[in-house]
Design a protein that fits this description.
Largest sheet: 6 strands, mixed
Distance between the termini: 28 Å
Shape: globular
Structural class: alpha+beta
Helix content: 10-25%
Radius of gyration: 25 Å
């Protein structure tokens, strides 16, 4: 694994000294869905009709239904919520790069296809903080990765409920931050990442103010009169770790607690006070002041400082708001849209690959691939054939092991065969992806190419319905 980290951490050698900054749009969602089934449509939540398309989507849900039967079945297949987001985003060329589920907590990370070869060293983990850490009723799930060489971490939390447990919420958060670790030399803990997003149902309440005052501020949209009594804003004044996190203004009405299927705040006997329980915060790693000491930590800090100067990263929040039209839960979803401005450390993928000659189900087909930079290859690396619009790494039609099926080798270009038995007889637009077992991600994607319809199938008079069935069977057998 040492080799992996060395490859991962080193910027491309051949970059020019003149490095330009690029902007990437990040769309984040947090929503406590209160065990409800998904709505029919999430287009407005994801701004699918907006002219500005995000490069990345990060979706954090809490209280996804996890009764025993549902939870067991979800371990094998994507849960209904994941399926909804995947089916909404895959046709628009977004790939689910990673996901993490801990009972009711779910975190999904999607990327535009063009960025996928530059999202590396992906790891996901979770921490339980519920009653004695049992059955995962509260806690945090996280996904960390390198995006064009910059270390990012996304932490979706569901913290302790009720007005009186504000300090316990901070303790839970600090416990998650302290105990989550990753197999990554450069960023073994959450705080080591260049950029961290902390979001979820953080459960902080508005204290001291009475119900009448809170509701009149909401009705008059004078939300700023409530900010000084928001527990998270109050605790930020005295907790060092919280002070390192930024948050946009709460210029939207509190997102909890609503009567189901309505925009009416809690009218039950409990009449819970409205609160901004659902939040999105971020932290850019603070710059460490240089020191004259020569110990190992200082060498690492100097290296970090040099990297930060050479490859800057800035975050700007474009939007922070709630979506009131979703009524299936007692919480409203919150979205945050960000611009990440950064200088890429990697400009070229690790591998280029292409389909050689005509492809169809009538003949074995050939893939040419070419390592563009050194990387820790393995006999477990494989090349997958995917339909254009595929949803995740596992959504391949067929694959071939790189080493096992190698038929020739020269200094640069290598060739592997893909068996005709698994190539779709109806053809279609496809891409090839090279998956690195050591780096745990796709490191190269071909240009789209057309797989031709099988002439043999047409000659034998196979009907389209029958051919469709064959394709489906071939795909299902892979899983």
């Amino acid at each position: 694994m040492e080799m992996m980290e060395e490859n991962e951490e080193q910027p491309d050698d051949h970059q020019s000294l003149e490095k330009e900054r690029e902007r990437f749009r990040l769309h984040m969602v947090t929503w406590n869905v209160a065990t409800a089934d998904p709505p029919d449509d999430v287009a407005s939540l994801l701004h699918l009709n907006s002219p500005k398309t995000p490069d990345l989507y990060v979706i954090g849900l809490q209280e996804v239904y996890s009764g025993p039967v549902r939870f067991v079945s979800d371990m094998i297949f994507d849960d209904p919520w994941s399926q909804l987001f995947i089916s909404s985003l895959a046709p628009l060329n977004y790939v689910k790069v990673s996901s993490m589920r801990m009972q009711g907590l779910l975190l999904l990370f999607f990327s535009k296809l063009e960025h996928v070869p530059f999202i590396r060293d992906i790891q996901a983990t979770y921490t339980r903080t519920g009653i004695f850490g049992y059955w995962g009723n509260k806690g945090g799930v996280s996904v960390r990765l390198s995006f064009y060489g910059h270390m990012l971490c996304f932490l979706n939390c569901h913290l302790a409920a009720h007005m009186k447990y504000a300090n316990e919420r901070v303790d839970e958060f600090e416990h998650i931050m302290d105990t989550q670790t990753f197999d990554c030399k450069k960023a073994p803990r959450i705080v080591d990442h260049r950029l961290v997003f902390w979001f979820g149902d953080l459960n902080f309440r508005i204290q001291d103010h009475g119900m009448h005052f809170v509701r009149s501020c909401i009705n008059n949209q004078t939300y700023n009169l409530l900010w000084s009594h928001d527990q998270l804003i109050m605790l930020k004044k005295k907790e060092q770790l919280l002070q390192e996190f930024e948050e946009g203004s709460l210029d939207f009405q509190p997102t909890y607690k609503f009567d189901l299927n309505s925009d009416t705040y809690d009218s039950s006997g409990k009449k819970r006070k409205p609160a901004w329980t659902d939040r999105i915060l971020w932290r850019v790693r603070p710059k460490s002041p240089p020191s004259d000491e020569q110990d190992e930590n200082n060498v690492k800090e100097r290296k970090q400082l040099k990297e930060e100067e050479e490859y800057p990263l800035k975050v700007r929040q474009n939007l922070y708001t709630s979506h009131m039209e979703y009524r299936i839960s007692d919480h409203k979803p919150v979205i945050g849209i960000f611009t990440l401005e950064l200088t890429k450390m990697h400009q070229t993928p690790l591998v280029s690959l292409q389909a050689e000659g005509d492809w169809s189900a009538d003949i074995d087909s050939m893939v040419l691939y070419n390592p563009l930079q050194p990387f820790p290859s393995s006999s477990w690396d494989w090349i997958g054939l995917y339909k254009v619009g595929f949803s995740s790494v596992s959504d391949y039609i067929t694959y071939t092991w790189v080493k096992d099926d190698e038929v020739a080798f020269n200094d640069e270009v290598m060739q592997v065969f893909m068996s005709k038995e698994e190539i779709p007889v109806r053809g279609g637009e496809c891409v090839l992806c090279y998956y690195s077992s050591n780096l745990r991600c796709i490191i190269g994607i071909s240009e789209p190419f057309k797989v031709l319809e099988s002439k043999v199938a047409v000659a034998e008079g196979l009907l389209p319905e029958r051919i469709n069935g064959l394709d489906r069977i071939a795909r299902n057998e892979e899983f």
